[in-house]
Amino acid sequence: MPTEPTDPQRVEQLDALAHPQRLALFRLLVRRYPDEVPAGELAQALEVRQNTLSSYLSSLRHAGLIEQTRMGRSLLYRVRMDRTGGLMSYLFADCCRGRPELCPPSASETARSEPKYNVLFVCAGNSARSLFAESILRTEGGDRFNAHSAGTQPRSAPHPLAIELLADRGHDIAPLRSKTVAAFRATDAPAMDFVFTVCDRAANEECPAWPDQPLTAHWGMPDPVAVTGPDPERRRAFADAYTVLERRIQGLVDLPIETLDRASLQRRLDTLALTQEPQ
């Protein structure tokens, strides 16, 4: 039987990913999508030298898997989802001939056992942003969603200003506590339908893939806990974070989830990440 020709571009893409650190860089940019991430932040997150990172970025760019833009003196990088999707389609449809045993079923193909969608918001400390998101979704979408939050490196307790703000806005603060994301990977944890990272630090961390293939999106935003200065400035930072998350979560609640296919829903979730901070 004659050998079928192999798409040269696919070979180049696979070759670019066939290196542990280049693959780690690519995976980080996928987790951060749709962010454009500065090269310096990438080097810091991966703990590599700048010149080494430049070589990795050049390989991925040449293969068409990432794109580069310039903002002032900074170079920013983002995954090219169109090219990445083409590679995944090629592997499944061409190399694997579409065999279903080689591709696990998507969430849209799996029967739901829960009447509500389980949603997890993740940040590093689980002391402000993720707790805001959990509380807002519990209030705005309680009839359709179960809201949870966790931290990759949780603090000992929620930040007092976060709790104060939530109480002032009428949220039930009694169930709120800082907890580890590991608890939601346990065998007895609820299966997640959606997982959102709401801080860059959490998205930069290399974590195992979630079971049950939940839809994931990065809704990164500045950490109000990190703001220093006069009390009014700190309180405004917390209020701004709350407002942005409220807008994004209202967008999630308004989505016709049941009528969207998985790819369309993912695009809508990524678009919601572009909701900007208050001016």
Automatic annotation (TrEMBL):
GO terms for molecular function: DNA-binding transcription factor activity. GO terms for biological process: response to arsenic-containing substance. This is Protein-tyrosine-phosphatase. SUPFAM superfamilies: Phosphotyrosine protein phosphatases I, Winged helix' DNA-binding domain. SMART domains: HTH_ARSR, LMWPc. Pfam families: HTH_20, LMWPc. Residues 2-99 form the HTH arsR-type domain. The lineage of its organism: Bacteria, Pseudomonadati, Pseudomonadota, Alphaproteobacteria, Rhodobacterales. It comes from the Bacteria. Keywords: Arsenical resistance. PROSITE patterns: HTH_ARSR_2. InterPro entries: ArsR-like_HTH (IPR011991), HTH_ArsR_DNA-bd_dom (IPR001845), Ptyr_pPase (IPR023485), Ptyr_pPase_sf (IPR036196), WH-like_DNA-bd_sf (IPR036388), WH_DNA-bd_sf (IPR036390). Coiled coil: none annotated.
